[in-house]
Write a structure and sequence with these properties.
27% strand, alpha+beta, two-stranded antiparallel sheet, 237 residues, 7 helices, three-stranded antiparallel beta sheet
Length: 237
């Protein structure tokens, strides 16, 4: 009897949650342990430029993040919810090329292999297993802190301002996080994955961005976003 190849399973923790890859056979909501999801990756060629890099979301090992989390409001979280997609074997090469060319082959992401967990009837278990109850690992793209685009933690207000101001070949960074766009779609998608799914950093950044959008109605902020306009507003000017 010949050997049976393990299926290609990819874990989506960003836009793949609401924009799945092609040729999905099965999908399972689940979470990773020992990781954090953060907008901690500089984008020089996607949502920014080398002179003014934007910010995009990445997955980071918790033990690595501990060294860079001085500005993190939620330093103790170590679970990331997302979706594990099992790809039709006939199209594995095509999907790998799609993921590399269109999503992750930008600015320092590395593919890793890991277990995805889920909760059923209050019991935690590994999520991906086949009809023979053989457990399978998932592929996931991770931003390692030694890659040149890793930025580490930033205060939420500073991160929101950077997202607002940056522009790159793929457009404005704020379009990545504007209403009905990336940040809000990601936050809402995470909420809907499972009763227990959460991401405090993501949800707090969502609130910060809504605050910025509220400020857009202020004439001062139509031409000056940042400390100067904020101080002027506070001083009643």
């Amino acid at each position: 009897m010949g050997s049976i190849n393990a299926p290609f399973v990819v874990f989506g923790y960003g836009s793949l949650i609401f924009k799945p890859p092609p040729h999905v056979q099965f999908q399972t909501s689940g979470f990773l342990k020992g990781y954090v999801r953060r907008f901690a990756q500089k984008s020089h060629d996607h949502r920014g430029t080398p002179e003014n890099p934007g910010r995009v979301v990445t997955l980071i090992h918790k033990e690595d993040w501990d060294h860079f989390s001085q500005s993190d409001a939620f330093p103790n979280e170590d679970i990331v919810w997302g979706i594990a997609y099992t790809i039709d074997p006939e199209y594995e090469a095509e999907v790998k090329a799609y993921l590399g060319d269109n999503i992750m082959d930008q600015d320092g992401y590395t593919m890793e292999t890991l277990h995805v967990y889920t909760i059923e009837n209050g019991i935690e278990r590994i999520a991906i297993q086949d009809v023979c109850n053989i457990l399978h690992l998932s592929k996931c793209y991770v931003g390692r802190p030694d890659n040149p685009s890793f930025i580490g933690s930033e205060p939420l207000e500073d991160l929101a301002q950077r997202i607002w101001a940056s522009v790159g070949p793929s457009g404005q960074n704020k379009a990545y996080c504007f209403p009905q766009e990336y940040l809000y779609r990601l936050a809402e998608s995470v909420r809907q994955l499972a009763p227990a799914s959460y991401d405090s950093h993501l949800f707090a950044l969502e609130v910060s961005r809504r605050t910025i959008i509220t400020w857009i109605g202020d004439p001062l902020l139509m031409f000056c976003f940042g400390g100067t306009a904020t101080r002027a507003r506070q001083n009643g000017k």
